[in-house]
## 1
Amino acid sequence: MMTLKVNGQDHQIDAEPDTPLLYVLRDDLKLNAAKYGCGLGQCGSCTVIVDGKAVLSCVTPVLLLEGKQVTTLEGLGTVAAPSPIQRAFMEEQAAQCGYCIAGMMMRAQALLQRNSKPTDEQIRAELEPNLCRCGTHMRILRAVHRAAQLMDTAELSPAGQRSAQ
Amino acid sequence: MKKKSGIIGSVVVALLLGGAGMAFAIAWRPAIAAIDPPKPQSFDASLVRRGRELAALGNCNDCHTVRGAKNFAGGLPVPTPFGTIYSSNITPDAETGIGRWSEAAFLRAMRLGVDRQGRHLYPTFPYDHFTNVSDDDDRALYAFLMTREPVHAPPRDNQLAFPLNQRVVVAGWKFLFLRPGAYKPDPTRSAEWNRGAYLVEGLAHCGACHTPRNALGAEKLNAMFAGGDVDHWRAYPINAQSPAPVPWNADALYAYLRDGFHSDHGTARGPMAEVVRNLSAVPGSDVRAIATYMADVFGAPSAEQKQRGEAALAQVKSAPAATTVDSPAGSIYVAACAGCHESGRPPPYGGINLALSTAISGSDPRNLANIVLAGVRPVEGERSPIMPGFAASMSDTQVAALLTYLRARFSKQPAWTDLGNIVAEARRTQTASMETPADARNASAASTERAKP
Amino acid sequence: MIGPFILDRRRLLAGSGALVVSFSLSGAFAEEQSAPAAPPAPKLPGSLGKSPYLDSWIRIDADGSITVFTGKAELGQGFKTAFQQIAAEELDVPFASLKVVTADTKLTANEGYTAGSHSTQDSGTAIQYAAAQARALLVAEAAKRLDLPAEGLRIENAAVIASDGRRLSYGELVAADFLHVQAEARTKPKDPAAFKVMGQPIPRVDIPAKVTGGAAYVQDLRLPDMVHARVVRPPSYGAELTNVDTATIENLPGVVKVVRDGNFLAVVAKKEFQAIKAMRALAAAAKWKETARLPNQDELLALLTTTLKSQDHAIFERSDPSVSGQKAIEATFTRPYQSHGSMGPSCAVAQFANGAMTVWTHTQGVYPDRAAIAEMLHMPPASVRLIHTEGSGCYGHNGADDAAADAALIARALPDTPVRVQWMREQEHAWEPYAPAMVTKLKASIGADGKIADWNFAVWSNTHSMRPGGAGCLLAAQHMEKPFTVPPAKPLPLPEGGGDRNAIPIYTFPNIHVMHHFLPDMPIRISAMRGLGAYHNIFSIESFMDELANLAGTDPVEFRLKHLDDPRGRDVVEKAAEQFGWHTGQQAPQDRGYGFAFARYKNLAAYCAIASEVEVNRETGRARLVLAVAAVDSGQVVNPDGLTNQIEGAIMQSSSWTLYERVSFDERRITSIDWQTYPILRFDAVPEKIDVHIINRPGKPFLGSGETGQGPAAASVANAIANATGKRLRDLPLTRKRIKDAIDA
C-alpha cells in the first residue's frame, strides 16, 4: 500500500510499485483524462503534471510518486467551473476525436505555469512530444494562446483567481 | 580555467622570448587579397556535388549551423576548457562570410589554420585534421561553399580570457602540435584502408572527439582514439580499449555509420546523431573505407573481449527477466524501460537490449545519465528512436539508483561512483535541451541541439 | 448489408437505454461506402429508404423528452452534434432539449458503416425528413384536438400553440405508436431562410466531457468485476503457434485465465498492468513457426503492375477522334501502404451472460461486425448486441472490429465476466488493415488550343474494403483452431468505387480512357482508409494537371478552369485562388513554392480546392507546409465550425501522409510498429496558418465532407514542392531524402 496525492487528495493505493501511474489513475482512481496511447513514451496522450512538471504517466512507475503532487485534467476544473485552459479549449472547439486533448492540455498547462506569456514558437516546441492524428494542431495552438490570455485576465481581475496549480 | 590560462600564458611567453624569430615566422602570415565573390555558375556542377559529399564527411554543417538558423552561417558556441569559441560564417557572404576568399585563401585555411587576413584560427576548427585533406578535395569544398546561399550573419565574439584572446598565441600551439601537409598513403596497406585513413584522419576528424587532449588542448598522439569528451558527452574509446560489450567489426561499423544504428550496439545519439545523418548521404564506399580503417584501429578483439561479446549476445537471447521485481530500481526498470528495451526488437524498432549497451558498460556514466534524463527526441518525419526523458519524474537520487541497478544487472563492470554528483551535473547540462529551446543561447543548449539533425 | 428492422427497441429502451446514454459519443471520419447489395431506395431520402418508420429515428415520450436515433457512429467528426442540430431545427425544439442515441444493434436502424462521408447525406437526411414529418404530424394532431386549421398553429418550446393561447405540448400530443408511421417522400423540410440552429456553429456536445475528464470513450468503460485481457498476436501473417507453456503464465500474479484457441492466444488478469506483464511473459513463452513471405517494400511498382494478377476494367471511355494532341507527356505515381495510426489503440469490452453476448466497441459498423462476430461464435445474430462506444479517431477500418471479436471470444471463455481487451500500440500498428499501395499511370496530350486533347489514366490497386466479409475478415476468427478463411476480395462498385474512386476525372476532355486494374491478391492486410483510392488518384490527377499546365504554358488555376464545367467546382476553385491571392505570373519567395489542387470527392460529394505555400530547405530537402487556403462546398451546411474542423484536420493529416508515411516490412514481418518506425507529423511541422472558406448552399442536399480534403491537400503540397524546387516528385511519401535527391540530381 502506498499513499498517492492526486488533485489535492490523498489516496491509498494497492498496486505493485512497478505499475505505471497511468493504470493507477485510470483503474484504481477511475480517472479518465490520462489515456493509453502507446505505453512507450512516444505520443503524450498520458501526460499528467507532477510537482509542476509535465510527465508521461505511462512510463512512470507509481513508486516514484511518493510524496509528490500529481495533477490530472480532472484536477484543473469541471464543466461547471472550468479552468482557463479548459475554457479555452471549449471556446476554440479544439478537438476532433479528442483522444490526445487531455495530454495536450496538461503539457500546455505545465508550460503556462512556468511561462505565462509563451510565444507561438515556444508553444510549438513544448507540445512536440504530443501527437495528434486528427490534425487539430491549429486549434490546439489557438486554445493555448487563448488560455494564456484568460489566465492573464484572471490574474488582473479584482477577484484575482489564479488558475489551478 | 584560470589555472589553464596561467599555464598557457607562461608557455606563450616562453616561446616568444625564447624563439622570437621562429615564432615570428610562424606567428605572422600574410593577408591574401580579397576577391569579388565568385559567381555560383562559374563552378563546375560535378565539383560542387563532390564538395557537398566532402562537406558531409567533414560534418561542416554541424559546427557551422545553429539549429533553426541558416545553413553554414556560424554562430554556434563551442565550449572548450579555455572558454567559448563561436563558429564562423562560411557562407559566401561578402562582408560576414567567406565571400571574398580566393580559393588559395580557403586552401590555406584548411592546410594551416589561417584566415584570409592572415589571422590564426583557433584549433577548435580542427585544421590539425583538415591539413590532411588534398588540394583537389579542398577545391571541391570551396566550390560547394561558394555556391551556398550567402547569409549576412556577423561573427560573435569569442569568450576567451587574456592572453588566449590574442590570436598570436595560437602560433605557439601550432608550433607544438600542427604537422601541416596532406595525408600520405601507406603503400603497405590496401587502397580502401588508405582511403579510410585519409578520411578519418582528415575530413571526418574522428579523433577530434574521440582522442583525449593534453593541457594545451591538443590531441594526445600516444593515446589516439582512447576516448574524449564533447559537449558533456563521453566520446567512447574507439580503439582496443573500447568498452562495447560486443566488439566492433567493419560490418557493424559500416551499418552504424550509414544507418545510424546497429542491433548489437544501439543507436547513434548525442553529438554522433548529426555525424551519421551526414554519412547517410555520402557514397557508401567512403563509409566502407572509414569502417575498414577504424576496424583496424579497434583491432581484432582479444579472447576476453570475444568471450564477453558472446556472453552478452547469449544473455539477450535467453529467457526474459522475471516479472517479479527485486528492488525499487527494478520496479522503475519494469515500468519505464522494459516496454521498449525488452521488446525483443532490435533498434530502430525497439530499444536496445541493455546487455548490449555501451552506455552501461562504459567507464563513464555521463552518457547514460544524459539519455535517461533527456531521452531521445524524434527526428521530424523520419524513422528514428524516441525515448522519453525522465528528468521530470525522477529525482537525482532515483536516477542514480536506476543507473546503479542497470550497471549491476546489465554489465560485468565495477560499480560507478559519485553518481549523485554526476547525475546532478547531467541534469544541469541537459536542462536547456529539455525545456523550450527557443531562446536558449547558452553553450549546453546549443551543443545538445546539435544532437538533433 | 441490410439488417432487420427491430421493433422491440422501444420496449427495451427503458432498461438498456441507461447503458447507452451514459456515454456521449462523438464522431470521427467516414470512409468507404456503406455496402448495400440492393439498388438504392427509390423515393425516400437518405437512410429512410431502408428504415422508413419514423420511430426508427425520433422518439417522443409522454413526459416530453425527445430522443433522436442514428445508426451512424460518432467518430470525432461532431455528427452527434450535427444530427442534434438537424432534429432540433426540424422539430422546432431547443437544441439542448434533445438527446442523440447512436449505433446500437438493439436500438437503432441499420445504417451499415459510418463511412464514405455518408453520414450527413444518409443519416442526417433521414433525421431531417423524419423530424420534419414528425412535426407535421404533431401539428396535425394538435389541429384535430383543438379543432382548428393547422396553418394557424405555431410551435414554441416543444408545444403547439393556437392563436387563442391554447397549448398542447409534444408530450401531451403523442400516443403509443404515434410515430410508427412510414416516411412520406412529399415531406418538406424547413426553408433554410427560417433556420435558427442549422448552419450555426453550435459547440459540440461531447467536448465538455473530453476536456474535463468525463467518460467519453470505450476505453473509459468500467463495469463491475471487469477483467483485463491482452492478446498475444502472432509475429507475422500466418504464423503457427507450435508451443506455449501456459501453466507458468497462469500462476503469475492476478492472472485469471490463459485463453488459447489454435493460434489465438490471450491472457486475462484482474488488474491491467498484471495483464500487460503476463502478456509479455506469454509472448516470450510462445513459440511460433513463421512462414510469411512478404514482398519487397521497395519494389511496390513492380509488385502491383507486374507480379500481382489483375482484373482489368475500362471504367470510362469518351472518344472524339476530331481532336488530337500535339505534345504528350506521361507519368507514373506510386503510393505505399499507409497506416490509420489511430491515437488510441483499439479496445472493446464484451460480456457473455445468459446466452447473450454484448460488445461495446468503436467499430464503424455495429450491424456488419455483429454478423461477423455471431458467425465466428456460431451464435444467432439476435443473441449478439453491439453498442457503438466512441474510440479515438479511426479514419476507416482500423483494429476496432478485430478488438471487438477478440473481446467476444475471450468473454465466451469467462461467462458473466465483463472482459476488456486493449490492443497495444505495437499490435495496432502491425495488425490493422492498411490503406492499400497503389500505382497510377497517366498519359495526356495538349492540343493546339493549349487544352488537353486526350487523357489516359490507369490505376492498380487492391480492394479498399475488406468489410463486410463475415467472420473471415476478423483476425480472431482467422487465428482460431477452426479458422474462417478470408473471403475473396471484391472491388467496390462505382460510382463510389474503391481503388478507382475519383479515377474518372471531373474535368471535361474530348478523349478520356480510364482503366481500373483490380488486384484481388493481398500480400499485406488492407482495407479502407479515409478517402480510399481518392487520395492517390486525386494526388496523381492534380499533380499531372500541373505538369500539363506547365507544358501548355498556362497558369495552373487558369488551366483547370479551362477544363472545368461544373459551376460549383469552378466556384471553389476561384474562391480558394482568390483568398490565397493566386495570380498568373506569381513568384514565390526564395525557398518557397505555391501549389494548387481541386477535386470533388467521388465526383458526387463535397467540393474542395486548396492553395498551399510550402517551404523547402535546399540543403536538407526538408519540406514544410507554411500556409493552406481551402474553399469547400458541402451543400447545406449543418455546422460550419465542424466542417472547418474537418477540412483543417484533413489538410494536416494528408500532409503527414504525403510527406512522411509509409508502412515498412521485411521479408517476413511488418516492421513499422510504433511512432519511432512510423513517424507522423508533429508540432514542429505545423503550418503558420490554415484558412477554410465555406461556400454555403442553403437548401441543397448535404454533401459528405469528411474525406474531401485528403486528395487536394496532397496534390497541393506536391505542386508547391515542384514549384519551389523545379523538380517533380511522384512517389509518395515525398520524404526529405527524396526531395534532397531530386534537388541534387
## 2
Amino acid sequence: MLGSLVPAPRSALHPLAALGLAVVFLSLGLAVRPAEVMSLYLAGMSVLILVLGYRRPWLGVLKFVFPAGAVVGLITWLVTGDRISLVLVLERFYLFGVTTSLVAAMDPGDLSRALNRVRCPRRVSLGFLITVRFIPVLKAEMDRIREAVRVRGLRLSWKRPGQAHRVLLLPLVVRLIHISDTLALSLETRAFSAPGRPTALHRPGFTWRDWVGLPAGLGLVAATVWRLLR
Amino acid sequence: MRVVAENLGVRYSSSGDWALEEVNLCFEPGTVTLLSGPCGSGKTTLLHCLNGIIPHLVEAETGGRVLLGQTGTEEAAVSGVSSLVGTVLQDPEAQIFNLRVEDEIAFGCENLGLDPQVIQERVQDQGRRFGLAPKARTAILSGGQKQRLVLASVLAMDRPLLLLDEPLAHLDRRGAALLAALLRESRTAGRTVVAAEHRLDLILPLVDRVVWLEQGRVRADLPAREAAGRLPARDLPASVGPSPGPTGPPLVALARVDVVSGGRTRLRRVDLTVAPGERVTLLGPNGAGKTTLLRTLAGLCRPDKGTAIRNGPAPGRGVGFVFQNPGYQLFMDSVRAEVEIGSPSAERTRELLDLFGLWELRERHPHSLSEGQKRLLSVAAAVAPEPALLCLDEPTVGQDSRSLGRLLQALDQTLDRECIALVAATHDPRCALALGGRCLWLEQGRVRERGGADLARRYFCRELDGDGD
C-alpha cells in the first residue's frame, strides 16, 4: 500500500530541516574526493541520522541501495579495471541512501504546509511533493510486481536479464507513470494552485531533534569542508 | 451552477480518432446526471473537459467550449476552475497524497484558504459520515475505504459542481448507501453532479438523467425513469448455470486461521475448504478481510494462527490469481505472448484468446488495452496454465456490462470444463449472482454467514435498501 513501507520515525525532523540537510549532505558528498575524508563524512552522517531516530527508514533504504550499488560498482570495476572505482560507487550509493532516508520519512502533508509557510512557489513545491510521495510508492509497487511475477509462475534468473528487465521494469514504469499523472491531477483538482494563501489544519513545529540535528549536521559539513581545505 | 458543453470535440495527440465529437450538453444546478456507455466511449474525457484538465493539464486538440456558469474553462486557469469543481478521479489509491486520513480530507480545504476551525469541523463531519478515523494511516485502508476517503476529501471542499468518475467502483453496500445519500443531499443543496459509472443497477435509481455515450458521441440523453428499460448496457450478463459441486478432496483447507498485517488482525478464526471445481464468492463490507482471505488461500499470505493445508496449489504452481489492478500482471509485449507464456500449447492460447474475445487484439500491447480488456486478458493469462484454483479480486472494477458478460461466460465455460475451483471477492451483485456457488459473508475478519445464492441476494438487497447494520 502506498506509504506503508518506509516507516517514519516517531517524531522526524521538521520537513524543511530534513530537506535542507538532505540537500547539503548530498551536494557536499558528491564533491568530496579523498577516500578517508569521505569515509569519515559518511560515518558522521550515519551516526547523526541514527541518533535522530531514522534507523528504520535508513535500514529500509539500504536494502535497495547496497545491491544496486554493488551491481553498478562491479560493472564500473570491470570497465575501468580499477578496484577503487567499486568503492567510490558504493560510497556514492550509500550517500544517496542516507540522504534519501531523511526525505523518505517525511510526511508529505507536513512538507506541503511547511513549503506554503515559506511561500515556496507552487510549481516548485509540486515537484518536491510528488518526489517525496514517490519514494514509498516505488518500494510498494516493486513488492506488488514481485508478487504478481510469483503468482504467474515466472522464474527470474540473472542468466536471462532481458526477461527480468521486461517482467519487472515494464509494469513498474507503466504504473509509476500512471500514479504520477493521477497524483498530479489529484493535487491540481483539489485547488493546489488556487490563488490566495493556503491555511493549515496544524503546522509542523520544531522539536529537540531539529535543535540538535541542524547544528550537528551543519557542524559535520563545516568540519568536512575544513578537512578538505586543509 | 449551470454547466454547458457546446459542440465539444477532443482528439488526443497520441490518437487519430476523436475521443469526443460534437457533444452538446447542459447540466442544471440541483440535478444528478449519469454518464454511461461502454469502456472507451469518452466518459472520462468529458469529465476532464468539464473540470479543465483538458486542455490545461492533458495535451489534446479541442473544439467547442465548456462554460461553468459564466466562466469558460479554456480561458480560466486550472486554479480558477478547481475552485469551482470537486473531482473524484478513477483509481483512489493513486490519488491519495497524505499519510493520515485527517490530512487528506483537509488538503483541499487548506488549499482553498479556509479557516482552520472550519477545516477541523469538515474533517470531523466527513470522517464520521464515511466511517473513517481521522488519525488512521491512509496506507492501511482497504480499496473501498480509500474510495470513501477520496469522496470525503472532495466533499469537504463543498464546491458547486461535483464530478465523479466511477465512484462506486470499490464501494461496499454501506459505501453505496452513503453515496446515495450524498447525491440526494447534493440535489437538495443545488449542486450540479455529473457521475460516470458502469454499475447501472445501483446508480440508476439515484440520478435524474442519463447521457449515453458511444465512440465519443452522445447516443441518448434521457430522463432516468425512461432510461431504465432502454439502455443497451442495462442487460445483465448471461445467467450462468448452477455451479458444479465439489469433486474430490479439498485443494485448500483453512482451519481457525488468523492473519495479522499492518498491526491489524485482518482474519479471525476463519474456516474454509475449497474443493476442485467448486465456486466460492466472498462478500462483505470494505476492510472485511476478503482480499486477505484470497491471498491466504493462494499462499501469498501465511496464517499467524491456525492451519492452512494445501493439496497441490501454491503460488506459481496450480494457483491463478488476478489482482484488483490487472496492470501489475501484464509483462509481455503482445496480448498473445501474455497468454502464451503460461499456456501448455499454441492451441490452448488460440482457444483462450477466442473465448475471452481477445483474438482480434492479439498483436496489441497489453498496456494499450482498455481497463475492461486488460481485466479479460489478466484472467485469460491466469487460466492458461490450467490452475487447480483461480482467485479473482474484484473482477468487475472498471468493466462495462459487455466486458463483464464476456468475462463471466468465458469463465463459466473454462471452469466447468477443466474443473477449476474459483474463489472471487466482489461487491457487484451481477458478478456474485452470475457466478453461483457458495457464498461467505465476512465482517471484521470473521465469517458472519455462509450460504448459497440466497445469501448473496439477501446481502445485496440490504445494500440496495441502504441498511448499514
## 3
Amino acid sequence: MMTDKAYDVILNTLTPETTRDDVTLPDLDRKPDPWESSMQATVECLSWRGAWDNLDRRHTEDQLGETIYRDFPVRSRSVVATAHALMDKGVISPDELEAKMEEVRARFNRQ
Amino acid sequence: MTHSHDDHAPIQASEEVSEFEILETAIRELSIEHGLFSREDHRRFSEWAESVGPSGGSKLVAKAWVDPEFKKRLLADGTETCKEVGIDWRDPTGSGTPSDYTYFYVLENTPKVHNVIVCTLCSCYPRPVLGMSPDWYRTPNYRRRLVRWPREVIAEFGLHFPSDVEVRVHDSNQKSRFMVMPMRPEGTEGWSEEQLASIVTRDTMIGVAVPQVDWTATTPPSDNGGTAR
Amino acid sequence: MTKFEIGDRVTVKDATSMFHTRTQAFIRGHTGVVVEHRPEWVIPEDEAWGRVEDGRTEPFYVVRFRQTDLWPRYTGFEIDTLETECSERWLEPAGEADT
C-alpha cells in the first residue's frame, strides 16, 4: 500500500500551466507528447522485469491521482505514481531523485 | 545563447522542456541505474508503443467487411485471426507479452445492437490492434460513467441511438480484450480495403463513434459527430 | 466440466471484497444470463499472488445483465445491457425469487 503523503519532489513539478482543469471527455483527446510514450515503455519494463506489476500500478495511479496528486493532469499519472512508488519502495530516495532531476535539467538546457 | 541553433537538439512539442519530461527522464535513468530494466528493454518497448496505432484494428474491420469468411473467422477466434494481419497477441513486441491479456474478441455491431467497451477496474485496452488508449478512456470519468449512463456518455461524443437499439456495454475486467466491429456505412460500395480502413477510426472501434464516409482518421469531421442509421 | 450452460440465469455472489478480486462491486448480488463460455484460466485471486503455474483454474463465463436491473435510476432504455466475465466461484444459480 502506498503512503498517503505526497513527495515534495513530485509536487514541485506541477506548474500553473500544467495544473489539471476539469474538461469534457472529448477535450481530453490529445496526441501524447514523446515523454508520455517513453513513460509508457518504462512502466511496461518495470512490470515485465518484475519491479512493479501493471495492475498494481494502474490501481495506484487511480488512487494517488484522485487524492494527493489530484491537481496533476491525467496524462502525468503514470510518471507521478511511478516516482511515488519507487520512493515508497525505497528503490530511490527523494534526494536522489532531486539530484538526478537537477542533472537532467542542466543537460537539457545545455542543448 | 550558445547552441540555440543546434542541429542535434531534440525536437520538442513545445519550446520549453517540461518538468514532467524531466521527471520522466530521471525516473527512467534511475531505474536503469538501479538495474530494474535495461536500456535495450526500454528501447524495444518504446519502439512498439510509438509504432502501434489503430491501423491493425482498421485492417481487421475492413477485411471483415469485404470477406465474409474472414469475418466468420475473426468473430469465432479473434486471437488467432489477428495473425492474418500480422498481429500476434501472445508476442506483440517480439520479446514476450508484458501485460496480462490473453484473449481477443471482436464485438459485431448490428442494426439492433451497438457495442461499447470499457475497463472499470483499470482501463485495459486492446493495444496490439488499437495502439495507446486515449486519455479520456483511462479517466474515472469515463470508466465510472459509461457503465451507469452509457447513452449520456456516447452522446457527449455525438452518438445517439433510438430506444429499439440495444446499447451493450462490455467491461473487460478479466483476461479478455475487446474491439468493436462497426457496421459498414452506406455509400461505400466498391471501395477498396484501404479506403474502407481509412474510415474505421479508433473511436469507432471503442464504440463512441460510427464510421462515416466523409471522415477518416486524418481529416477532421465535417459535422459534429454522427447519428447511427 | 462447466457448471453453467448458455442461457442459465445466474446470480453474482454478494461476498465481501476479497483482496485482488476482479469482480466488480456493482454486479454483486445481481442476476444475469450466461451468454458465452470462456477458456479456463487461473483465477485472479491466485494470479495476484504470482501463482500462475499452480493457481486454481476454473471456467469463466460471460454474463449479461439488464441495465435496468443493475442501476435503480438507469436513464437509458429497457433494452440496454452490460456484459462482463465472471469466474465460476462467483456465480450461483438464480433463485426462484428473481424474475
## 4
Amino acid sequence: MSSVLSSEPAPRRWTADPVLTVEHVQMRFGGLVAVNDLSFEVGRGDITALIGPNGAGKTTVFNCITGFYKPTQGMLLLKHAKGDTFLLERMPDYRISAKARVARTFQNIRLFSGMTVLENLLVAQHNRLMLASGMTILGVLGLPSYKRAEKESIEAAKFWLEKTGLTARADDPAGDLPYGAQRRLEIARAMCTEPQLLCLDEPAAGLNPRESAELNTLLLDIRKMGTTSILLIEHDMSVVMEISDHVVVLEYGVKISDGTPSEVRNDPRVIAAYLGVDDEEVEKVEEQLDELAEGTTP
Amino acid sequence: MAAAKTTSGPGGSIAGAARDAILAGVVALGIFGPLVGLKTEQNMQNELVITTRWGLVAIIVGIVIAGRFLLTTTIWPAMTRNKMRDKPAATAGEVAFRARLARWFAPTGLVFLFIYPALMVYFLGFQGSLKWVDNFGIQILIYVMLGWGLNIVVGLAGLLDLGYVAFYAVGAYSYALLATHFGLSFWLLLPLAGTLAALWGIMLGFPVLRLRGDYLAIVTLAFGEIIRLVLINFRELTNGSAGISSIPKITFFGLYSFDLSAPNNFAKVFDLPMSSAYYKIFLYYLILLLALLTAFVTLRLRKLPVGRAWEALREDEIACRSLGINTTNTKLTAFALGAMFGGFAGSFFAARQGFVSPESFTFMESAVIVAIVVLGGMGSMIGVALAAVAMIGGTELLRELDFLKAVFGEGFDPDQFRMLIFGLAMVLVMIWKPRGFVSAREPTVFLNERKSISGSFVKEGHG
C-alpha cells in the first residue's frame, strides 16, 4: 500500500483490487537465489505481463504461483471476485488449480497428445465431472445424471473450440495439430477449468505474425469476458505492448520495473537490461536514479 | 550378410544362393558342433565321458542350410518386391470391409466363446472335451482376465507394474485360507478376495507414488517377490512351500455341488453319467463371466472422468496436476482396481486348482502377464485378449506337437523349449508390430466422427 502513498507518476489501478498479491517472494535452489524479494500485484480483469531477459526467473515465479515450487519465503495471496482468499504457498499444486482456480500453460507445450482435442478439454473439467459421476460409482452404474453433466461439459468444450478455431479438429489427436493450434488448445484447456487467474508461459513463442495476432484477439476476448485475469510471460514485445495493461520486469530474480507498458518501455533500467550497456553507463544510470529518488522523496 | 545382399536381388542366381546357404551351414556347424554335438556325462565311476550327437547336429545344420536357401531365393526377393511396389491406397471396399471386421470381431468372438464348450462336447464328447475346455479355455481366460486387470494399471494409467502376480497370490490365498479354515463359500469369498487384493494394491501404491519408470518397475517387482517369500516363510499360516491343498470346489450358486460325495451332486440330481466335465464347463462359464465383468467395468471406466484421468496421467502427469487432478488418488484407484481384478482371478484360480503353493506365483507369471499386455497393445482390450490366446494357447499347443519326436528323437520334449520359442515369437512380433497387435487408441468421446488414434501419438507412460 506504500506505493499508493509514494509519489509515483500514475495511479496504480491494479493495486485497488488485485486478484493476486505477490509479497516478498524468494525462491532459493541451494546456493542459487532464482527470485529474490519479489512483490507485485495482478489486477483483477487485467492482462499483466511478466517480462525479463532469459534466466531472469519468470518461469520460477510461475512455478511458485501454480504450486510446482514452494517459495522459500514470502506470501502469495489469491483473492476471488466473491471474496474467498487462498494462500497459494501453502497449497499442493492440484488444489491450486481445483480450489484457488489458477490455471496455467507451459513453455514447452504439455498436451495429452494421444487423446483427442475434445478429450483434452474434458480432462480439464475432471473435478466437476468426477462429482457428477458420484466419484465414479454412479457413473459405472450408468445413471443419467452423469450423462447430463458430460453433455454440459461437451458444450463448454465446444464454446472454447469455437473461440480458438479448433472445432473442425475436435476429433483429431492433439499431437497431430500444428504448433500454433496446439498453443491455442493449451489455452482452451486451461480455460475449461474456469480459472480466476490464467498464467500463460510464453504463449506466442514460435507463432508466426498472423497466429500471434490471433492470439492477441483471443486473450483480449478472455479479458472482455471479465471473469478471468491473465498473467503472462512473453518475449514477443508486440504482444506485450499491444495487449497488456500492466508490465512487471524482472532481471536476475529481482523486479527492476513495474508499470504501464509505456512507462516500462521508457524506463532506463529496462532498456539497460534488454539492450545491455557498459558498466560505467549502468553506474551512471543508477546514480541518476538515486538522484531522482532523493529529489522526489521528502 | 554383404554377400547375401548382392546375390539376393530380384532373380538372384541359384548358385549364389546355394553358396550362401552352404556358408551359413558351415557357420552353424562351427557353433552347434561343439555345443550340441559333444555332451559330457558322468559314468558309474564318476568319470566324465564324452558322448556325441552328430545326428542332431546334422539335422540342425540341415535346417539352417535349407532355411537360408529359402530366405535368399524366395522370401527376401518377395519382401523387396513388396516394398518396391507402391501400396495402392485402400479402396472404399477395403475400408468398409475393415470397418465391418472391426465392428463384428468382438460380437462374433463373444458368441464363439459362449458356444465353445458346447462345440467341444459335440465334437469330442464329454471326456474328450476336458482338455480343450480346461487347459485351453479356462487357462486362456484366466490370463485374459489378468491381462485386462493389469491393462488398467499398465495400459491406461501407464504405471509399469512388474509385481502384478502378488495380487493374484493375495486373491488365491484369501480364498484358499478362508475356505479351508472357515468353510466360507466361494460366492462370499470372491468379493472379499477382490477387496483384500485391492487393499494390498493401495498398500503397494502408497510407497511407490513418487517413483517413475524403471524405479517403479523395480519396486513393484520386489513387492511381488516379497509376497511370494512371505508365503513361503510364514509357515504357520500358509503351510510354506508345501502349499494348501483340498481347497473346496465352487458350488453352483449353493444349489448344486460338484463334489462326488455330496448328496446334491450335479450329476446325481439330474441323473447324468458321472463326469468331471460338468465342473470344468461350469468353471469355463464362470471365468468367462468374470473376464467379461472386467472388460465391462474397464470399458465403462474409460468413458468416465477417472478413466480419462488415467489416460491423461499416462500422457503427461505434470499437465494433469496443472488441471487440478489429484494424481495421488488417480494412481491409487488404478492400482486398487487392477489389483481387485487380479484378486478375483486369484480366488478363481485357487478354487479351480484345488491347491495353491508359492510356486504358482513366481516372477515368471508377472512377466507373462506384462508380456500379454505389451504384446496386445497397451490399452486395447481386444489386443490383450488376442495376445493371451497367442501366448497361453501357443505354449499349451507345444504340448501337442508330438510329431516333432519323429524328427528329433524319442527324448525330445517340445514343452522344454517353450520359453525359447516364446522369446523368439515375442522378438518377431515386436519387429513386425512394435506397438503390439492393436496399437490404435479408440477415443472415449467424439463430437462429429469417431476416428481411431494412431499409436504413434499415444504415449506409453513413464511410470
